[in-house]
Design a protein that fits this description.
six-stranded parallel beta sheet, Rossmann fold, 15 helices
Length: about 375
């Protein structure tokens, strides 16, 4: 295990009716901007609860943050924040709203072209407006980390960024907010949380037994609760488990001091940018290809994963069980099932990675050719 510094200042308020604490968490004298997505919070009652909490406060709202939040939309929010001298942001929604709000918080303070925040992946961020979150869709772990992913639809680009000032001050996690979510979003959340864990775990042995067991515990829990998460009527305990798993998957704990991969995510981001596929869908497509392509190099951890999570002592069987899990929650795992031509995808992603000199994986040697090869496996 490598040396590391783990820093996470986010206060997590978890559980049934945790909204009750929101009034004490949001600064009383703040000029507040509430951000949200397509308006589902107005249909499921979450917006009304937020409005009651903020009654009498100085607050405004900015809605319409898209899945895979768009740079142009977020820049309109940045203009509003600057014009109205907003000094606290409250993001209400899933990972896209939270990610977009992190960008708003940093861009509003940024001196220069905010696009640079994404080009340098957050390295130039020095300040950000404080923000809190109310999570309604567990998946990305954005409620407990300082990172985000932003798209620029006019150019077909999608970049990740992260910086310490972008940690949420607090995050309210009430599993009851998931009750109105459709199965597609719940399934994507299961896949996203699962792959976050895999990207930090399925690399090579690094003498980190506790992190391994923590990762395996999250994976096993997600597999166990998945059927109940998707059940109708909603089952609170299962959805609470998913929400907590998603937070633990990407709050920095299981990845502390261990090698990490992230090739699946980076290739997946390109599929979203090019074809508009859901983020969770791209992960379910790409991960089995990455694991098969890197079977020999990842074999030790794949066998450990197979034994401890699926009860199989075979690396290839572990990959097959992983893909079967994605399909069991209703997420197709082949490009053709989403009307995407593998040859077209492989060529476009290869060109993009060649232009950027992209190199991925825990060894830093998966290049544009490797990405193309992996996508051709996912016809």
């Amino acid at each position: 295990m490598n040396d590391f510094i783990l820093f996470n200042p986010t206060r997590i308020v978890f559980g049934r009716d945790s909204f009750a604490q929101l009034s004490s968490l949001v600064p009383g004298s703040a000029r507040i901007l509430v951000t949200y997505g397509g308006g589902s919070i107005k249909r499921n009652g979450v917006y009304d609860r937020i409005a009651r909490v903020l009654s009498g406060r100085n607050w405004q709202e900015f809605g319409g943050i898209e899945p895979n939040p768009d740079y142009a939309t977020l820049m309109r929010a940045v203009e509003l924040v600057r014009r109205e001298r907003i000094d606290f942001l409250l993001a209400v929604g899933g990972g896209s709203t939270l990610d977009g709000t992190k960008f708003i918080s940093a861009a509003a303070c940024y001196e220069g072209d905010p696009w640079q925040i994404l080009v340098d992946h957050g390295a130039s961020i020095r300040r950000a407006i404080p923000m809190g979150t109310v999570l309604t869709l567990p998946a990305t772990g954005s409620e407990a980390n300082p990172t985000g992913v932003i798209s620029r639809r006019e150019t077909g680009e999608k970049y990740h960024f992260g910086a310490e000032p972008c940690f949420p001050v607090f995050s309210v996690l009430d599993p009851q907010t998931m009750d109105s979510l459709p199965p597609r979003q719940l399934a994507n959340g299961l896949v996203d949380a699962y792959v976050h864990v895999v990207e930090q775990y399925l690399t090579y042995p690094s003498r980190a037994p506790l992190q391994d067991r923590q990762a395996e515990g999250i994976l096993s829990t997600l597999i166990e609760v998945a059927p109940a998460v998707l059940a109708d009527p909603p089952q609170y305990d299962a959805r609470a488990a998913l929400m907590w798993c998603a937070t633990q998957a990407l709050n920095g704990l299981i990845g502390a001091g261990v090698p990490q991969d992230w090739a699946t995510h980076m290739i997946g981001h390109e599929l979203t940018a090019l074809y508009g596929l859901d983020h969770g869908v791209t992960l379910a497509i790409v991960l089995p290809g990455v694991l098969r392509d890197q079977l020999e190099r990842k074999s030790a951890k794949l066998r450990q994963y197979g034994r401890r999570v699926f009860g199989v002592d075979d690396a290839f069987a572990a990959i097959e069980r992983t893909e079967a899990f994605f399909r069991s929650v209703g997420v197709p795992t082949r490009l053709s099932e989403h009307a995407v031509d593998a040859t077209d995808a492989a060529l476009k992603v290869r060109r993009r990675f060649e232009a950027r000199g992209t190199r991925l994986g825990e060894h830093g040697d998966l290049d544009a050719s490797a990405a193309s090869r992996i996508l051709m496996m996912r016809k």
